[in-house]
Prior knowledge:
Blueprint: E1 4-9, E2 15-21, E3 25-30, H1 41-47, E4 51-56, H2 73-86, E5 92-96, H3 99-111, E6 116-121, H4 127-130
Parallel strand pairs: 3-4, 3-5, 5-6
Antiparallel strand pairs: 1-2, 2-4
Amino acid sequence: MMLNSRSIITNDDVCLHYLTAGRGRPMVLALGWSQTAAMFTQLLDDLSKDYTVIAFDMRGHGASEKPDCGYRIAWFAADAAGVIAKFDLDGAILFGHPMGCAVISSYLEMFGRDCVSRLAPIDQAPVVTAWPDWSDCRDF
Length: 140
């Protein structure tokens, strides 16, 4: 596997590190609290056989910059949007691992699903998405 390590600058001037590998349909990995893209190199290797995989270190994580603010799910989702825009993705699969699932949910709420073809939420508590008293109302 050829693993490429690069970075982008977010709209609020935070440098985010990301790893890319493979060819094919794009898959963006949004990882959990304190996880880094480097921790998932074996998974990147496996997925890169069929996909162009992009795994980014969220702000404050791994090799990404550690700003004084912006550590909320919505900020992480905006950062994911910046990564997706950087690659001009269409039909991307969004892969979330623990907190990354919440990041993806926030991304979809804020930016829509136009460039997303599938979701791959991994290891997120089901109560977050299936609480029986929740409605589709978006007024919070």
